[in-house]
UniProtKB/TrEMBL annotation:
<dbReference type="GO" id="GO:0046872">
    <property type="term" value="F:metal ion binding"/>
</dbReference>
<keyword id="KW-0460">Magnesium</keyword>
<protein>
    <recommendedName>
        <fullName>Haloacid dehalogenase</fullName>
    </recommendedName>
</protein>
<dbReference type="InterPro" id="IPR036412">
    <property type="entry name" value="HAD-like_sf"/>
</dbReference>
<dbReference type="InterPro" id="IPR023198">
    <property type="entry name" value="PGP-like_dom2"/>
</dbReference>
<dbReference type="InterPro" id="IPR051400">
    <property type="entry name" value="HAD-like_hydrolase"/>
</dbReference>
<keyword id="KW-0378">Hydrolase</keyword>
<dbReference type="GO" id="GO:0016791">
    <property type="term" value="F:phosphatase activity"/>
</dbReference>
<dbReference type="InterPro" id="IPR023214">
    <property type="entry name" value="HAD_sf"/>
</dbReference>
<keyword id="KW-0479">Metal-binding</keyword>
Amino acid sequence: MNKPTETLAKAQGPSPRNAWVFDLDDTLMSNVHDYAFPILNACKLVIDTLGDAAPHVSAIVALEQEIDSRRVAEINPATNQPYGYSMERFPTSLVEVYREICRRVGKSPIRSVESELLYTGLKAFDSSRYRKNVYSDTFPVLDFLEKKGDLILLLTKGDKRVQGRKLSVLDAGKRFCSVRVVESKKTPEVFTEMAKGLESYRLFSVGNDYEKDIVPALGVGYRGVWIPVETWEVIGRLDEIRARVDQSRCIELRLLRELVERYDEITGMVA
Ligand SMILES: [Mg+2]
């Protein structure tokens, strides 16, 4: 899927000055509620199955959040690799929630309930929703940058089986001059690789997650454009994160369309 950025940079001629590395989920398309209905349905199934032995629904949701967050770094025994952001983490985390509750109340998990939880969780990856998940600002902003002669690149983290379907909705292979999916995290090295051949460009990383999309990029010469969304990974922490933002090299936007409205201000930032 990747095209050599050097070749593309040359093909664009000498005029482009800026290269934008976009995040995908919750930056160009909404992802934050894709998991909501599977989680709610899983809660219902656990309560239907365990009856009065089930904890309060808010405790089930909190346990799901706790197990999902912990599992990102845990080793998947089937692969000997961390679960990361793979489909092996969610929806298997829903099964683990059920098993943990069963352990706590001294009941044996039922295999058919576990299968149903997996099936329910897989609906988070229903690709029929992806087209309407694309933000209304996304294509106008990308078109604006292209008209400016800028380069647009895409760097997303997640399961390639899932991200691939989202990328096809965006027609990403044609629209972006480079597309990369990482399954664990966006490291400074990944940002450096994305910028290969673009040494004469001003580099920008645009994303909703300051810690994961912006910080690793600032360390290797990018400017940051942070458009915060309160996802499951930053619930209740946005103010604390905002206090740590390096405002000399990162600008915070409320909406993606402000990238157009404040283009001169953003591109005038010093790296
Ligand atoms: Mg994101």
